[in-house]
Amino acid sequence: MTDLPRVTRPAPPAPRPAPQLPRWVVAVIALCCLIELGLQLAALAGHPAARPASLMLAGFWSELLQGGAPLYPGQPALMFLSYGLLHAGLLHLAMNMLSLAVVARELFRLMGAATMAGIYLASQIAAAALFAVMRPAAGPMIGASGAVFGIAAALVAQAAVIGHRRRRPMGRMWRSVALILALNVALTLAMPAIAWQAHLGGAVAGALLGGALALLGRR
């Protein structure tokens, strides 16, 4: 009587862990929340002037690029970075931070943290630049939505290029894009104070960078 050899089946592959948020995204969200918390507490403590002061010091003022007098040295350059950390209230903050977390989590599947941070920063600068060109006398403009639109557009561009190369159906993605655009148009009509020019500038920059990186095969 011969023994049959035992055949051990290979263990099924472990499920891939869900991608976490890059540390810089967590830092941006934490900083934005801390700033808004400070402004809310200042108002409750009887210092309502704290918010207007923050707008004067850190908001984006197009006039400063047209010869306006800055409040401190370097303000015309620094405001390209600082305006994205300020928000008009808890609802504005929540919408932007939730969108940032959701989009960054998905984009992190396709590119490294440093590359994504570069796209975020470039989109924020491009958003402010287009706002200044289209509304040269406006201000203040605040919020992270221009940069968020940038990484969202980068995600769309990356997914479109990768999907085309792998011949995957893209209908679901384009429906999501159409929904995002429709919501943005609806919000712009409902809230005229929304700086759609910044959204557009950030989205164009993000799409161009995300698409170029995907075509070059860079992460």
UniProtKB/TrEMBL annotation:
The keyword Signal does not apply. The chain crosses the membrane at residues 24-46, 78-103, 110-134, 140-162, 174-194, 200-217. Keywords: Cell inner membrane, Cell membrane, Hydrolase, Membrane, Protease, Transmembrane, Transmembrane helix. InterPro entries: Peptidase_S54_rhomboid_dom (IPR022764), Rhomboid-like_sf (IPR035952). Pfam families: Rhomboid (PF01694). It is found in: Membrane. Its EC number is 3.4.21.105. It is a multi-pass membrane protein. Residues 80-212 form the Peptidase S54 rhomboid domain. GO terms for molecular function: peptidase activity. Its main location: membrane. SUPFAM superfamilies: Rhomboid-like (SSF144091). One of its GO terms (biological process) is proteolysis. This is Rhomboid family intramembrane serine protease. It comes from Paracoccus spongiarum.
